[in-house]
Amino acid sequence: MRSDERGGVTAEFAVALPAVVLVLACCVSGMAVAGQQLRLLDAAALAARTLGRGGDPGAVVERLVPGAEVSPTADGELACVTLTTTAAGPPITLSARSCALDAGR
User: Fold this and answer.
1) Which tens digit of pLDDT belongs to each residue from 67-101?
2) What is the distance, to the nearest Å, from the Cα of residue 97 to the centroid of all Cα atoms in its chain?
3) Considering its fold, how many domains does the chain have in total?
4) Is the CB of residue 36 less than 8 Å from the CB of residue 87?
5) Residue 82: beta bridge partners?
6) Cα(100)–Cα(63) distance, rounded to whole angstroms?
7) Which tens digits make up the pLDDT trace of 21-57?
8) Bigger pLDDT: 6 or 99?
9) Residue 70 structural domain
């Protein structure tokens, strides 16, 4: 190894490390948002079934996804619920909609 190349690996590692950490942080944040979206979808499905049976979808949603905005609607023979919330990490608005048969009315 020549004397003018000493420390080259250390310098390259010092430059690459922040990029690796940034990519890792983005991946972890993306997985957290995806998990929150799945919880929102599950809560919307359960809230729609609850609304279809004549129950209160807001109570179900508050237990599963606290702070989510609940918008129940009737669409013919269907009881639909739309949930909206902001992601915990990056400022992204998440939304989920689900419908079930309206047997409670």
Assistant:
1) 999 999 988 899 999 999 998 877 899 999 999 99
2) 13
3) 1
4) yes
5) 71, 97
6) 20
7) 999 999 998 899 999 999 999 999 999 999 999 999 9
8) 99
9) 3-101
DSSP assigned state of 90: S
* Strands of the sheet with 78-86, listed across from one edge: 69-75, 78-86, 93-101
CB 67 within 8 A of CB 81: no
Report the greatest alpha carbon distance in the chain: 84
* Alpha-carbon radius of gyration of the chain: 23
Q: Is the pLDDT of residue 1 over 80?
A: no
Q: What is the DSSP string of 19-60?
A: HHHHHHHHHHHHHHHHHHHHHHHHHHHHHHHHHHTT--HHHH
